[in-house]
């Protein structure tokens, strides 16, 4: 089915989930359902919604900026609207949600039932959506690790608040032991020149992704994505000191896709641009 009502679209694709930011023209849509869970939050003002129906849930009110709906996998829906809207949709693989439920609270796959929801407002979901909106606006400045960390927070919140059976979150067990941390450090330092994924780091530590994030932060005082960014910038400082590489080359050597993105990261971390850093030496 060609989505002719979509006039502009950008996506961030992650393991088990896609974030889809799009602008949609007025339309009436009968949706037969799909194999993914959908969570869609409105980013723009002046919505003129005529009807939203998901399963047995129905609303004929316009949505406010920050309102969202949830359409569980295989559930049909009807949408009708008269406005041009900007939205952010999280397309969630049910297997990913089930795996997270098992990791977080030992919730059996058969118990993972996402609830249909229409015209709802949740400050935490809105805050996460705004952070992803900023990622789109900056060209993915935070990188995959940052995006994956945000998704961890979103999924746990959905499991707690929008599932028929809420998992019992297992308590943390203190910091991560050094014999699990050191291989992660070694791996990060060996591959600073390429994107790093949360699944890779968690697998090396021998801990689930959810608890890896929590225990890493308790051990290091920063989230994994923050630690990796710090190491990239420290490596960049070393390479700048050597004066053997152009700034564009250093950007690639520390895993930044382009010089502009590298400069923004470097200035935020060091306080000056790479060129200014060089001029002071």
Automatic annotation (TrEMBL):
Residues 182-280 form the HTH araC/xylS-type domain. GO terms for molecular function: DNA-binding transcription factor activity; sequence-specific DNA binding. Gene3D superfamilies: Homeodomain-like. It comes from the Bacteria. This is Transcriptional regulator, AraC family. SMART domains: HTH_ARAC. Signal peptide: none annotated. InterPro entries: AraC_XylS_family_regulators, Homeodomain-like_sf, HTH_AraC, Tscrpt_reg_AraC-type_HTH. Keywords: DNA-binding, Transcription, Transcription regulation.
């Amino acid at each position: 089915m060609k989505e002719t009502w979509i006039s502009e679209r950008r996506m961030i694709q992650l393991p088990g989930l896609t974030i889809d930011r799009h602008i949609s023209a007025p339309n009436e849509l009968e949706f037969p359902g799909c194999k993914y869970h959908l969570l869609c939050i409105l980013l723009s003002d002046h919505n003129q919604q005529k009807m939203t129906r998901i399963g047995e849930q129905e609303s004929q009110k316009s949505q406010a900026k920050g309102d969202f709906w949830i359409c569980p996998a295989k559930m049909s829906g009807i949408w009708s609207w008269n406005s041009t809207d900007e939205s952010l949709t999280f397309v969630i693989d049910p297997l990913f949600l089930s795996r997270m439920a098992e990791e977080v609270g030992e919730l059996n796959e058969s118990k993972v039932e996402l609830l249909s929801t229409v015209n709802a407002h949740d400050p935490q979901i809105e805050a996460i959506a705004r952070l992803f909106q900023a990622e789109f606006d900056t060209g993915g400045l935070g990188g995959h690790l940052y995006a994956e960390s945000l998704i961890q927070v979103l999924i746990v919140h959905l499991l707690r608040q929008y599932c028929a059976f809420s998992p019992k979150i297992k308590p943390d067990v203190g910091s991560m032991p050094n014999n699990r941390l050191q291989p992660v450090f070694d791996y990060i330092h060996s591959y600073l020149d390429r994107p790093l994924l949360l699944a890779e780091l968690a697998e090396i530590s021998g801990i689930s992704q959810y608890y890896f994030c929590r225990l890493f932060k308790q051990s290091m005082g920063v989230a994994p994505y923050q630690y990796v960014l710090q190491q990239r910038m420290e490596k960049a400082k070393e390479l700048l000191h050597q004066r053997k590489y152009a700034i564009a080359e250093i950007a690639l050597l520390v895993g930044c896709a382009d010089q502009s993105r590298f400069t923004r990261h470097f200035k935020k971390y060091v306080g000056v641009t790479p060129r200014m850093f060089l001029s002071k030496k």
